[in-house]
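We both want to read discrete structure tokens more fluently, so let's practise on a single case. Once you have written the record down, we can walk along the chain together.
***
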Amino acid sequence: MDNDQKKMIAKVVRDQRHSKGFTQKELAELSKISLRSIQRIEQGKVKPRMYTLKVLSKTLDFSMDFLNVVNSIQNNSKAQPSKKRLIISISFGLVFFLLAGAFLVQSASFPETTFEYLIYWASVLILVTLFQLQVWKSN
């Protein structure tokens, strides 16, 4: 998707520059961005930094809303959970809850009160949650 984004930025900058009647050199002088950078952006060879895009959008009078669409598509594709993490998460959660339940079933004196029972399950849930956070936080 990064290549698509570079192409989209290149097209918008080039089209807007043409519509304003600027040469690349004139745009470089107006925006105080090097001619070489303008050329590389318009050729889709680089993805400009946000500062550069803001300067170009101000100079050429275009909205950067089109970037939000591309970024949301990129973020959605990155948000897909890996199968490995999903399997580990579900498996660990089930095993941990089964073991916690087995402990309760075999224990003759624990829990003595409903409060102890609820605290026990809350603790189990916290431990499972902390483990899941570690699994999902890792690369």
